[in-house]
Design goal:
By secondary structure, the protein is α/β, with parallel strands linked by helices. The chain is built from 12 helices and 6 strands.
Length: 253
């Protein structure tokens, strides 16, 4: 799928999917759910099974409530997950704990150094499904105060990815904020469903950061969505992307 006629340094702005690409949201979601659900469930419920149940309810809830902040989406999803698993009705405190957990989800080990490196060459802009408060907690916590050039969230856009509205908003704002045209934007993301499918639909180039998503993951599988995506680069990690950019930069000197 790679377009060998174009280099990464031909782009001016990297549009990131933060949770799944930079932040290990699957581990964060799984571990927080396991800390709240009855321990008797855990031996019979695999990580992938629990995450698939979560993903199903998250996507449906975001479609049903596109203007609700992500932290409140998580509260609703927690109730739905508990109900499907046949657990006792949760307290609102439990749901609130899950909803407020985003800022504690762990960062992938390579993310901070990779972003620092990429920031020397590109504008860095997350296009995220979370609310502004949760994203700020992530930036000041796991991301160690990393500076993004802009942040575009579902809370301000009033729809959730994979809605094309989010990408149209990002394209418009990138032009307004940085004078960057659509063909100068590269979508960098793990989730095929949330990012690569809509990126193709709106005519954006994209780079897939697998993060293990080739065979598992709640962002969709390549075996299921391969005919709906057309990413131009593919890397295992964000660090691998940053390394190639540095090689291109060294050759251009």
């Amino acid at each position: 799928m790679a377009d060998t006629s174009q280099q990464l340094l031909d782009f001016d702005l990297l549009c990131f999917d933060c949770y799944g690409t930079i932040i290990d949201w699957e581990t964060g979601i799984h571990d927080r759910l396991c800390s709240l659900l009855p321990s008797s469930l855990q031996p019979d419920l695999s990580r992938s099974q629990l995450l698939n149940i979560y993903a199903k309810h998250e996507h449906a809830t975001q479609i049903a409530h596109p203007t609700i902040a992500y932290s409140k989406i998580l509260r609703k999803v927690y109730h739905l997950v508990v109900e499907e698993l046949g657990c006792p009705v949760p307290t609102e405190t439990e749901a609130e704990v899950f909803g407020a957990s985003v800022g504690s989800w762990p960062v992938f080990p390579d993310s901070v150094s990779a972003l620092q490196s990429l920031g020397k060459h590109f504008k860095l802009v997350p296009l995220s499904n979370v609310d502004s408060k949760s994203l700020e907690e992530t930036v000041m916590g796991p991301l160690e105060g990393l500076v993004f050039d802009a942040r575009y969230t579902a809370e301000e856009i009033r729809t959730y990815k994979p809605d094309l509205n989010n990408f149209h908003y990002m394209i418009k704002q990138a032009k307004k904020d940085f004078g960057v045209d659509k063909n100068q934007i590269l979508v960098v993301a793990q989730s095929l469903m949330h990012d690569h499918v809509p990126a193709r639909k709106v005519g954006l180039k994209s780079c897939w950061i697998e993060r293990g998503g080739a065979t598992s993951g709640i962002g969709g599988l390549l075996t299921d969505l391969g005919d709906q995506v057309d990413f131009n680069w593919r890397f295992k990690t964000l660090g691998d992307l940053a390394a190639l950019v540095e090689k291109e930069a060294a050759k251009s000197k």
